[in-house]
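Predict the assembly for these two chains.
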Amino acid sequence: MEPMQSKQAAILSIGDELILGQSCDTNSAWLSYELLKHSIITAEHRTVADDRSAISLSIRSLAEQYDLLLITGGLGPTQDDMTREALGDVLNPGELLVEDLQARDDLVQWFSDRGLEIPESNFRQILRPSDMRMLHNPNGTAPGLSGVHSSCQIFALPGPPREMQPMFLNLVVPEIPKVDEAFSVRMAEVHEYGMGEAEAAQRLGEITDRNRNDRVGTTASEAIITARIRAHGSKEHAQQSCTEIADTVDRLWHPYSFGREGVTLASAVGTLLRDLQLTLVTAESCTGGWLSKTIVDVPGSSDYFLGGWITYANSMKQDNLHISEELLKQHGAVSEPVVRAMAEGALGSSQADLSVAVTGIAGPGGGTATKPVGTVFIAVGQRNSRGELSSFVRRFKFLAERSVVRDRAVKSALQMLRFTILNVTEDIPLLWQV
Amino acid sequence: MEPMQSKQAAILSIGDELILGQSCDTNSAWLSYELLKHSIITAEHRTVADDRSAISLSIRSLAEQYDLLLITGGLGPTQDDMTREALGDVLNPGELLVEDLQARDDLVQWFSDRGLEIPESNFRQILRPSDMRMLHNPNGTAPGLSGVHSSCQIFALPGPPREMQPMFLNLVVPEIPKVDEAFSVRMAEVHEYGMGEAEAAQRLGEITDRNRNDRVGTTASEAIITARIRAHGSKEHAQQSCTEIADTVDRLWHPYSFGREGVTLASAVGTLLRDLQLTLVTAESCTGGWLSKTIVDVPGSSDYFLGGWITYANSMKQDNLHISEELLKQHGAVSEPVVRAMAEGALGSSQADLSVAVTGIAGPGGGTATKPVGTVFIAVGQRNSRGELSSFVRRFKFLAERSVVRDRAVKSALQMLRFTILNVTEDIPLLWQV
């Protein structure tokens, strides 16, 4: 297709569970953001129930208004999945759906790879309107669909994000029309942890001014603050502006800024550990494995992560990290001496160079007057070149519910570890540190 | 207003940040779910940009189709907040907005309470179409609006959830028409893990028939299959139908069904462990703490969870779970003998009654011809009343990316543990078991 100046897209999400509020539609936001990377502006999101006539009415009305229509959901094997039939009502009214031979082969292969019988209902998934093409789904049994109605390009994608996202990136992106390069949009992100959103915004100053051509906004998600940068203009200009602004944000947010789009606290720490050939162990109480899980989320983490101890009960702390009953009795399991003993005990029971230990009161029960729910101690332990162990501790008070206390403890532990590796530990406070 | 039989609602969300995917619309799901509690079914969600004509077009078209329209967003003080003007274009076309005297007093009070000057732009927030009423906002400076167009009740609410939600509960709920108790709606959910969605649906048979009065649909989220039940009729009848259908689904899905709404695999296992006064430890390799994290997600898990070992490197398996170098060399770390040794080693190093161990190849690297990426061994270990240790193992092949392999391993481990406690381990296969 020839390039065009501006292109307007609509996104239609289908599902009773979405319309009834039993789950939240995250696909539309994800798709809109991806479309922007290709300089396509989304004008409307719409969600309807698993209702054949509601779906076909919406498809017809959106296809008449916009140039591109992305549909998610309703491609499953069950009776309430109606997107195929509704698309047929619009593109090939009055006709029966046809079986797609390639999709049949793919379906047979999918189940035989897994040593399973094909349930009868899955055969619904190889049907399509005769004027549509199927999009292969390597991550599930629902193929996507592609076709044109009323000059609008239509793509129907499966609802589960881990099936929808790769299908969009691999099969839809190459087919969406290119926008004229003079009207490019480029985006970048910079993430930070440890400063509040207000302070982060204040540090950015005038670059967040809404009247500028290049937009910079901040959003907060689970205490990770992200600067979202959007630059317009020719491809080169937009790209250059984006990079320059991201570099500036990175500098203004130092040392809290830990990476660009796609980088997590754990992957940033992992890159540092690998580069410096350092190894790490963990000792967790209230986070109960969450810290280690987050470290192992990063592919290749076996290069630097040896493992850890989840010492949820005191008996586990005594038997495995050799923390004395006296210390536990004297100070309590949630205390500076105990977290320090956990961090150094983990180093003592392994060959690692670094350790992180967390102990705290995540709630809802267990709080006291001096150590209320949300009190968390985090220690980073180090082994020096002579084999001597040392550690330092920070105390936090996360005023929130159980899952939030634990999430913030994991993030603070990773940022403390990052500061340690970068030698910026001494005087930089972290949010909620007390 | 007099009660009515059935009532259909639409929700319109307004905002550039939503349509561009920079933030996700959670208000629509929240409002739909709240409306259902009052037996009102939402038929459509729509999102448009901060664009006066797009907003007024949507308001007109939704008001013509539905009985109730809830609008969120676009009521702020800045130039891009256009909801007031768009409502005027629909309800009082050609007229100027009028100033609301009560809203002016409220605005003056808001700023004087905080010792602040009123920014000029905030005076936009006290304007309304002459045929609408204002809804007081004690949590912000944006009043809501209420009016009627084309027999549709319209409420416009501020976008921030902590302003929108109390305004909805306190000022909108008392005004929405009561649905006749003879036309009540009640909901329930049943969750299962270990059967595919198609088999789960097949087992439900005719109760998922869409022509029935009571609706049962299935949805899959990260391999947890949920039956969503919606019963209609008189209040008592609807509640009774819901309970009866949920009981039936639970029975048809036995032993894979693990709980109703709000129950997770980990909380179901936790309830069993607590009731039977059993204690648990974990030994994790590829899941890297995720299994333990999931167990600790449940408040009160310290009643039965002692802790665990994350033995990511082989040195950790040898030093902490006393697995011999020979065993590791002979069979490899990902093998039945090693996972068995992990499960029994964890029991040997603790006082727990039960253990779960996981070892596998999560990828992307590390796969071999006989043990491809996705190969996972899971063992459940038990200590009997004479103190003797035993264990059994299942082997899985999760053909998916790293995070999915690990997620399914965690869920399979919890379901295996649940089967063990319930004595249904022997002959019930789990999805992806090989």
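Chain A is about 35% helix and 25% strand. Chain A touches chain B through 94 residues (CB under 8 Å).
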